[in-house]
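Hey L., structure's done. Input below.
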Amino acid sequence: MANILIAGCGDIGCLLGTKLSQQGHTVFGLRRNTDALPECIHPIKANLAVEINTLPNNIDTVFYMAAAGKYNDTAYYQTYVLGLKNLIFSLKKTSAKKLFFISSTSVFRQSDGGIVDESSPTDDGTFSTKRLLEGEEAALESPFNATVVRFGGIYGPGRTHLIDLIQEGKAHCMEEVWSNRIHSEDCAGLLSHLLTCNEKNPDSLDSLYIGVDDLPTLSCELYDWLSEQLSAPDADRKEPTEASRLMRSNKRISNAKIRAMGYEFKYPSYKEGYLELLP
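Output:
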């Protein structure tokens, strides 16, 4: 069993840490406020924006899962670039060998509804995608064997904003625009699966994987389905402008690569996932 550090141990980090602890791993969770960490995760109270001097020496694998608290360039730089570089510097004093950097499919800016996979080009045209890609590069250029995982739109317990909007009659969707999602339980499950693959064969993992479920879905189709389940009015339709397509992106993301690695989704589509969240 391994000693695992989850840096930026938020809700998904706690799900992952609990899962890994149940498998017999020793898990450390690093965050500014450690009060909310489950008992099975050993707390490390630290700020990633400054030098970190409290890491155990015997760390084997690191998951960098920090999330920006605000949507601005300063917050994204501090979270995805500076924080990671500070952690990498501190990790050089430990026995860490493997680094997972959690990123986002938002770095794929395709807007024509086409199929996207790990080989598709990225776009650093916004501050958010620029900082995410800088973080990915810093991870891959670090002294550790690094793998980047780009997650799609995450939903699950505590992430029910869309359900709330539909219930309140405030939802609107853009016609003919695709969306790609993943349940938070599958985020943790997928990362746990990659860790297991790495432990069996450290050379088995590639540098990049995408985390989305099996079913890219037209946004209005999802909204209509949720409205029906909730007995709520249909969401307002909006015809997307070219500018809105570019801003929101419009793509169908393939999970074939992670499927080929043997991962089986607990929630292969939005229907299985959202049914458990409905009031």
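The mean pLDDT is 94. Residues 73-91 form the longest helix (19 residues).

-- N.
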